[in-house]
């Protein structure tokens, strides 16, 4: 085979590879490259339910960050969740509240944030005070039974 | 042979492959500028000898010296430098199948020298002319006959004008004309280019007709050495059987077996 | 007494086999290391790599793309029939994409690559060894590892991830074709659920890393088997078979290890 033809075909092959890579990035994974930087925010929960790392942190249903670490706070003996919020979301007031919600009926857990009324905003290292734990099925049933009994 | 200008000195060479001893104690001195033939029955290790001279195999004992410097123990770089002064014609021609005749012969020039393409072009054509295949310059190896492939390989082997040219069974499987061509070429090139030729072969008549010095190897040892005349007049039964192709002699016709009559009756 | 002898013989055989396997592994590692380190020789080697990219990558493109298309379509079909029981058939895009990107694209592409390109490499190098072309290269002063092995290695490393990505993309579009056109999944749902579920770093990039690792493994095995093959037609066919078998097993084994490392702690 002529060298020229071979070189052209190899060039096309490499271009096909690049196109595939871009296709994978954009169409398949929806990569938007918004890693414009993040800042860390913390919250404490009595019970995190089935919350896992990489769960979304949303405001009005729109993702504003991700859960990056879950651990125990040794002083308060509750769960401490670390979240990374996108840097351009810098208008979360210091009295915002967080709640662990479920996506759909069988869906995974995620964190929903509601903004409060204060002027001061959350910055890197802030702790969100107002938190509501996940709904745990057993506690719900227990509560239901307890209410029923007291009727 | 007391010629002191020996370009290759093989002394006390010993080599075994597994259990089989291929060389027991080989001593050969190959004189400069002459045609030396190493002959012997199949399997006597002739190709292995060439590989030792070229440094592709290391001996168990003894050594090979080329131009006074031992081959074994040279660094990779020194080994490659040594090989540039050697040309080897392999039994199968060994042309590179993905390159044309021209590219095959030009290859050693392109990788070992910095010569201009136009100069390389001229040299390739000259070498091909010397072997009579200048017209085949654009063919691919698959389009060549066995004899032609061997001649192209010869042109490639002499491309760098080496000091030593080694031929591994050059006459094997050739028709009479092809044989004649190769015999003439080897002789002519040896005389005109002045290099040392080492031929490994078991084609008696052809080899004896051009060799200046002959060694016959069998069972890991040299059983005869000398000029063609001396070999023909040798008193050794082994040598005579080999030279004249007698079916029975020191190398027996019958493979060892039990008594014939007993087995038939039995 | 006889049994003890036999036992010792067996143990000795095990030891011998074990040591020779280890020696083989060592040789393979040296070949890989040397061929990689010997890379820097820009102009001429670049051309060789391009030629090999054609042989190894471009020639495998058809089988990879067609397989990707069919597998993607089957995934779409099967995924739909499974998910429709849960009422989640609109999420079929996620299923197709994750299966492909994380597992099927690197693994199936690597298996196809081993069968098509790997066996071709082994046969080619084995044939070069059998026709003494590799020995010729050495005698001319060119290192076969640099000229023959290294370009093929790099071509394999570069081609595999490209082929794997093409497989994944073609598969996703194949799944889209079946799901959207035939099965009635909403095109908006197909793509958006997929995009929500596929993470570029964790899924796509990990898949590409797998493909690179497989590419290194397959190419290395193929070249080693070719270099070590017995120079007869039977020997070459044995080596080719070994390439495909060993490559396939190693791919599947490595896949498990890599999957555990990458996706283990969900």
Précis, in short:
The complex is a heterotrimer of chains A (151), B (266) and C (266). Chain B has 266 residues and is an alpha/beta fold.
Attribute tags:
heterotrimer; A: 151 residues; alpha/beta; 2 domains; eight-stranded mixed sheet; 2 helices; elongated; C: 266 residues; mainly alpha; 88% helix; 0% strand; globular
Produce the secondary structure layout.
The complex is a heterotrimer of chains A (151), B (266) and C (266).
Chain A: H1 3-28, E1 38-45, E2 56-59, E3 62-73, E4 78-86, E5 97-102, E6 109-114, E7 126-128, E8 130-132, H2 137-150
Chain B: E1 6-17, E2 20-31, E3 35-39, H1 46-53, E4 61-66, E5 69-70, H2 76-84, E6 86-89, H3 101-112, H4 117-131, H5 146-157, E7 164-168, H6 176-193, E8 196-201, H7 204-210, E9 213-218, E10 221-226, H8 228-232, H9 237-244, H10 260-265
Parallel strand pairs in B: 3-8, 3-9, 6-7, 7-8
Antiparallel strand pairs in B: 1-2, 1-4, 4-5, 9-10
Chain C: H1 2-37, H2 42-83, H3 92-130, H4 133-140, H5 144-182, H6 187-197, H7 200-228, H8 233-263
Radius of gyration of chain B from the CA trace?
A: 20 Å
User: Which shape of chain B, going by the Cα principal axes?
Assistant: globular
Sheet bearing the most strands of chain B, described? 6 strands, mixed
Strand arrangement in the largest pleated sheet of chain B: 6-7-8-3-9-10
Return the domain count of chain A. Answer: 2
H/E order of the elements of chain B? EEEHEEHEHHHEHEHEEHHH
Label the structural class of chain B.
alpha/beta
Q: CATH superfamily name of the domain at 1-85 and 198-266 in chain B?
A: P-loop containing nucleotide triphosphate hydrolases
Order of helices and strands of chain A: HEEEEEEEEH
Ends distance of chain A: 90 Å
Helical stretch count of chain A?
2
What level of helicity do the residues of chain A show?
25-40%
How would you describe the overall organization of this protein?
The complex is a heterotrimer of chains A (151), B (266) and C (266). With 151 residues, chain A is an alpha/beta fold. Chain A is built from two helices and eight strands; from the N terminus they run H-E-E-E-E-E-E-E-E-H. The mean pLDDT of chain A is 81. Chain A has helices at 3-28, 137-150, and strands spanning 38-45, 56-59, 62-73, 78-86, 97-102, 109-114, 126-128, 130-132. Chain A has an eight-stranded mixed beta sheet with strand order 7-1-4-3-2-6-5-8, with no helix packed on it. Chain B has a domain at 1-85 and 198-266: P-loop containing nucleotide triphosphate hydrolases (Rossmann fold, 3-Layer(aba) Sandwich). Helix content of chain B is 38%, strand content 24%. Chain B is globular, with a radius of gyration of 20 Å. The model of chain B has no long low-confidence stretch (mean pLDDT 83). In chain C, 88% of the residues lie in helices and 0% in strands. In chain C, helix 1 crosses helix 5 and helix 3 packs across helix 6 (187-197). The chains are: A alpha/beta (151), B alpha/beta (266), C mainly alpha (266). The A-C interface holds A 1, 3, 6-7, 9-10, 12-14, 16-17, 19-21, 23-25, 27-31, 52, 54 and C 47, 50-51, 53-54, 57-58, 61, 97, 101, 159, 161-163, 165-166, 168-169, 172, 191-192, 194-196, 198-200, 203-204, 266.
